[in-house]
Every structure is written in C-alpha cells, then in structure tokens.
Amino acid sequence: MKLSPNKQNILFRLPIAGMLLFVVFYSLAALHYPGGSWNVPAQTGFHLKDNYLCDLLDAQTISGLENTASVYAKIALGFLCLSLMVLWWYLPKLFFRKAKALVFMRWTGMLAMGTTLLLGPQNHDVVVRIAGVFGTISLMIALVSLYLDHFKGLFVLGVLCLVLFLANYYIYESEVLLKQLPVIQKITFTACILWFVFLDLALIKKFRGFKH
Question: How far apart are the first and last CA of the chain?
Fold first, then answer.
C-alpha cells in the first residue's frame, strides 16, 4: 500500500519518538526505584553500576520491597518495542536491493520486539533467548544489506552492536565478568538505540521529498 508523503513522513518519525519516550519513562522508573541489586541487595535507589535495566520491571525489588518503578518501566518498554516494530516494518525501504531476505528481516525484527513485550521476572530467560534468536537473525540480514548498499557508517555501528550483544549473551550464560554486566548492558543498549535512531534518520533522508 502506497502512502502519501505526509503519512509517510509521520510514520517514519514514530520510531524516534517512541525511543525518546522510552528514555523519558525509563528515567522516571530509575528515579522511583526503591533499591536493591544482585551485586548489592541492600543498596537504595537505582545504580548504573549494579542494576540491570530489567530490575525496574519486577513487581518487587531484589531486597523484597514493592517496586514503585515498574509501571514506568513497563510503559517505557511498550513504547520501545512498538516503535521498533514500526522501524523493522519500514526498514526494507531503506535498501536499493530488493531481496526476499529483507522480508525475513522485517518479520524476525518485529517478532524479536513482540517477544520482548512479554518480558517479566517469571519468563525473563526464555523471553531473552527467543527474542535474542530473532533479533540476531534480523540484525545479521540488516548488516549484510547495509554492507551491500554501501551504508558504511551504519554498517560499522551495526557490527559494534552485534559484537556487544553477543558479549552480553556470553557473559550472562558463562557468568564470566558477571559483576560488570550491568555496565556492559547499558553500553550495549545505548549503542543499539543510537544505531536504530541513525537507521531511522537514514530512512527519513532517503524519502525526504519523495513523491509517490
């Protein structure tokens, strides 16, 4: 279905708006977090060095307190996943080469985000692994497509995101450098958010002024 330039302009900007709202609501969640982490269970407040991002989603903190931050964290996660589903849907339009792999990239990317929406304390590991498989597939197809279409900067940043993502998974499963994982997780998350923002900006730039 073809979109008018105005509708296209709005839809292509939704992912950036959603990611900004994610940052706002996750910041609110961090400010309202009572405290407690796996590294320091008795600490107060949210600490970048010790807390995982998913700590904010739990109904109770690690120290057993009611987590008043969880509602903000769930809203933030919703904004992030839904906005990135929109980005994965439209991302094939960025590339000049048309291939069936791009359709596969679209759906695996959307499935990764849809699965992440289900993230909770009871199913954390299962959801992370399933979303990780879908996300890795979509990411690798995107990287190949970026390389073939000569998006050099986006390709390099995407490779960095993939390396960081795989490092997170290895540390989580092997427990090597596990105490440092909260910091590594946030570095990875920041890099991935920036990559998605730049992908969306590239998509907007390609279709700026485009007439259907």
Answer: 11
Residues 6+ apart with CB under 8 A from 186: 48, 53
Please tell me the distance from the alpha carbon of residue 167 to that of residue 184, in angstroms, as a whole number. 9
Contact call for residues 70 and 57 (beta carbons, < 8 A): yes
Domain ranges of the chain: 5-207
Distances (CA, A) of 210 to 88, 154, 190, 203: 20, 22, 31, 11
Beta bridge partners of 60: 66
Share the mean pLDDT of the chain: 92
Nearest to 134 by CA among 160, 104, 109: 109
For 126, other C-beta atoms within 10 Å of its C-beta total 12
- Please give the structure tokens belonging to residue 186: 């946030």
Least confident among 9-13, 93-97, 151-155: 9-13
Buried b (16+ CB within 10 A) or exposed e, 2-16: eeeeeebeeebbbbb
Measured CA to CA, the distance from residue 34 to residue 42 in angstroms comes to 10
Q: Which residues pair with 66 in a beta bridge?
A: 60
Q: pTM of this prediction? A: 0.91
3-class secondary-structure state, position 187: helix
